[in-house]
Specification:
Length: 503
Amino acid sequence: MAKAIMIQGTMSNAGKSLLAAGLCRIFKQDGYRVAPFKSQNMALNSFITQEGLEMGRAQVMQAEAAGIAPSVLMNPILLKPTNDVGSQVIVNGEVLGNMSAREYFAYKHKLIPDIMRAYEKLDREYDIIVIEGAGSPAEINLKQEDIVNMGMARMAKAPVLLVGDIDRGGVFAQLVGTVMLLEDEERALVKGLIINKFRGDKTILDPGVKMLEEKCRIPVVGVAPYLQIQVEDEDSLTTRFEQKGQVGLLDLAVIRLPRISNFTDFNPFESMPGVSLRYVQQVSQLGNPDMIILPGTKNTMEDLLWLRQSGLEAAVKKAAAAGTVIFGICGGYQMLGEELSDPQGVEAGGTIRGMGLLPQRTVFSAQKTRTRVRGRFGPVEGVLDTLTGVELEGYEIHMGQTEALGELRPLTVISDQVTGEKGKEDGAHTGGVYGTYVHGVFDREEVAKGVIRGLGRKKGISTEEITGVDFQTFKETQYDLLAAGLREHLDMKRIYEILEEGV
């Protein structure tokens, strides 16, 4: 049976996902078979496995760090918020249905057998399981029948490392307060404290660390620095949205929709010198980018209405008329059409006008497309003709089907890796407007470089200095850097002892 260790945090975005990934990498480097696990994840960024099942991207990232293929066993429950008070509930990679927060709170204990079946399968296959919690274990209103924090630690008999975020201030109150709010049996599970995202001279922090250990009677097993690591975070609080760097030689603007999903699609451009990638929420932020990207969303119709009300729809259409390249992915692709219809009430219900940039129509249905695909771009016209014939790989997650209403060229020709269907046409393009259902479409180096070559040629600048990277290779180097940084600042000897001692 596997040894288990659990990372819990004092709040959301304390750095649990990244620390769990770093431990996965360290254990892998040390010769262990290691797997990540999170019983319940809430995120709009999801992934499709080779079996066509859906799971959260944090566990995909952690599986990559562990050097293994992602599996829904690592994330048996995924909640994808559909509005402020409800979510689509996905169990073992398949949609169970939509529930309000109150309905799910009353129902979740019924999912414990699914959680434990998944965990026990990993338990039989691996030496170490690194478990991630969610939010804080001291959320008093959520502790009843908890299945993701201390409840999960008890079920897995896993010692807990509690993480606090010093970057946002108040880390000592975070950690002491969280420990004090735990029940005695819960407090006994916490075997180590970690201060995360520290910047500066650690010796200045030493008196606080001593006080923390005295008040909590739990050892501090590390003060982790603020690591500048580029991996695919999924948290909606991601700092990517707040970055305000200089506009590069080539400027890409992503519309930050209220229910934006799978924004990791654009990460490959972040590592390209001379290219800036910005997230835009207001017309005043748009400027004059070389390409505007409409990303995926969990609610296409409501986010399109927001786009319309904010004035960004008019600004995007004006930019398209002036020759700016527009690229839509998944929900963003659906928005580009003439009409969106929802006869079954899957999203907002009814029918609304699209942006009218592609002659097509989308009809939503309860059936969800979940698959992995591989293929190539067909004959592409316009600025991005540099993509013609370039191979691509990715996955689809969407509700509804899109049909052409006139002459429209497909963007790609793909093969479905789950059903085996070959020669399937995907997406569309006309003029400078392009769209696809494929998430991860830019991950291959030649695709990202093709986009940049086309945009650079249009702008009349040389892109010889703007080089792409193979994104998979790049991520491997980032996981190694993450592991090296944590080895230096965590007491790995003590963490291994905690792992061996258990609870």
